Amino acid sequence: MNEVIQNAVxxxxxxxxDNCKIGLILGSGLGGYAEKIENKRFMSYSDLPGFPQSRVQxxxxxxxxxxxxxxxxxxxxxxxxxYEGYPQSDIAIPIRVxxxxxxxxxxxxxxxxxxxxxxxxxxxxxxxxxxxxxxSHPLIGPNDDDFGPRFPDQSNVYDRDLRAGVREAAKKxxxxxxxxxxxxxxxxxxxxxxxxxxSRIVGASxxxxxxxxxxxAAAHCGIKTVGISLITNMAAGIADQSLSHEEVQETAAVxxxxxxxxxxxxxxxxx
Length: 271
Ligand code: HPA
Known about the structure:
Blueprint: H1 3-16, E1 20-26, E2 38-44, E3 62-68, E4 71-77, H2 88-91, H3 93-101, E5 105-114, E6 124-132, H4 160-173, E7 177-184, H5 193-201, E8 206-208, H6 212-220, E9 224-234, H7 245-270
Helix pairs in contact: 1-3, 4-7
């Protein structure tokens, strides 16, 4: 097994204990949710030998471990992106670390551009499925049979039962929840208007630059996954304005209360 994974597990295990079954990955502008975790223990990615480092503005770059609603969680405050130059197999590393630490359920969150014309800026969307349009794949290379099979099934990457639970949780929390297919582009540019038309034709409701490699790696090793996108902007060419990372972060800040409410309800009722 990969030495980087083994070393990270060794370093994190004492902080996680033997009942850490929930993983959280917080996307662009959404890292603030980690402040809600109680009895926090921290591990910076830079303190883990060989571990990838996060370099995006608004991403902190550490694991936060602690308790939410009496449950132990391990949270990535900042994630790794394909556009930073990491092979997608590196993006799988923290997922595999979580698996070895005992994580059974994973909540992936991201900022995304809205493609579905019924969506509005600030909406939350549960991911029903994805289209991997990134041009790569996290499982390219020799298969590590310790984690899963060479040709893993992808029919239920975003677990059907958990999704039903999340829809109920959203109702209970009074949070409107859209649902749709997330299409991953490599970035780092935002998509062109023509690419957004294309994404709509092939069935996407939202586009983004993350999440898919993590979800594939999680499905491969048998972690049940839920994905939530915050629609920080309508995608290129829909509104008559240009897109920016600042806008993504501003919308995330405005929507953070609603986002927190939903994540609270998911962790307390569904996970
Ligand atoms: N495209 C890709 N990724 C994104 C977007 C977008 O419009 N908004 C936030 N992340």
